[in-house]
Inverse folding.
């Protein structure tokens, strides 16, 4: 199966709230429910986090350049999973891959990102992963979604993705 085909099928999106600085939605994928949060972000905060961390390395030049461009609209994307008992868990606490529908989940998240960007000016998306298997999946998602600039950097085992909105 090609990368393009992996992210073709999506679930349903029900927007709870859509505003310029913050949005939430419920994503229904098969029998599972996910909660999506989109929030206006500031890449200066990412630079600050890197410089104040014990494992500080050089800040990538592309990140400094983006962080210093205050005209850019950057948004972070997070989502969490609700299990069958209605218990909400952050996505990094529960292996989404355990549902057997990880590509459909991420395709639905990408669809929601695109819908949001149709209503609001979005230049870059930021998301992160700590688990190695999730990092691999997020790298694929970034490649598929960006069709342009997709950057990655790591801080203390967490991998961050900064992806140009298409």
């Amino acid at each position: 199966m090609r990368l393009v085909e992996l992210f073709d099928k999506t679930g349903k999106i029900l927007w709870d709230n859509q505003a310029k600085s913050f949005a939430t939605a419920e994503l229904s994928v098969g029998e599972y429910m996910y909660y999506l949060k989109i929030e206006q972000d500031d890449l200066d905060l990412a630079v600050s986090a890197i410089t104040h961390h014990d494992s500080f390395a050089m800040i990538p030049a592309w990140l400094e350049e983006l962080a210093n461009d205050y005209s850019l609209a950057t948004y972070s994307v997070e989502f969490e999973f609700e299990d069958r008992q209605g218990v909400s868990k952050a996505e990094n606490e529960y292996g989404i891959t355990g549902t057997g529908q990880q590509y459909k989940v991420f395709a639905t998240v990408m669809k929601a990102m695109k819908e949001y960007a149709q209503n609001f000016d979005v230049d870059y998306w930021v998301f992160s992963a700590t688990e190695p298997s999730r990092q691999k999946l997020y790298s694929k998602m970034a490649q598929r979604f960006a069709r342009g600039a997709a950057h990655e950097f790591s801080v203390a085992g967490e991998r961050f993705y900064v992806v140009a909105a298409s």
Summary: The two ends are 23 Å apart (CA to CA). Residues 44 and 89 are 28 Å apart (CA to CA). Helices lie at 3-6, 43-51, 61-67, 102-119, 132-146. The chain has a mean pLDDT of 80.
